[in-house]
Amino acid sequence: MLEAGVVTEGSDGDLHLTDGFETAWTDEMERLRALDDDALAAATADAVPFEAEGSTRFDGVAVEGDAGAVWLRPVHAVADVAAVRAMERVGVAEPVRAPAASPLRLFLPACPACGGSLAETTVADGCCGGTMNPGETPTRRVVACEDCGAAVRDLGAVGVDEERPTD
């Protein structure tokens, strides 16, 4: 990604999106956000590295072909398809684009669903409590939109919040 001009190393030693790639990615996300569900499914099928058909299923985008199948939440489909298209615009080789799309979500400049600001947060993980105590709620860290709440990247399990009865 460094050689392809997608990311660059900053003076702080951290990786950052290049201005050109960030602009291309943002433009593509804006275009994809405007699509209806069926058009987003078709765009997702066009972006995968195998012949596929796209459809909407289980509140998400399903892409299936002889070489594989993918299911994405719409927010992830927008981010990943936009990343694939933006990588194509900056000259990233086709075999690298789809596998690099999901990891690039760590660098998202804005929410793919609404364009809002992103921040790390902790959310409840699941609906039924923890494995040892029904009062426990497993939590995980995510990058999520501060405006619409869409979780765009899972950063992993954090621990357990215990609900204690109040007297």
Automatic annotation (TrEMBL):
<dbReference type="Pfam" id="PF26238">
    <property type="entry name" value="DUF8054_M"/>
</dbReference>
<dbReference type="InterPro" id="IPR058775">
    <property type="entry name" value="DUF8054_M"/>
</dbReference>
<protein>
    <recommendedName>
        <fullName>DUF8054 domain-containing protein</fullName>
    </recommendedName>
</protein>
<feature type="domain" description="DUF8054">
    <location>
        <begin position="2"/>
        <end position="106"/>
    </location>
</feature>
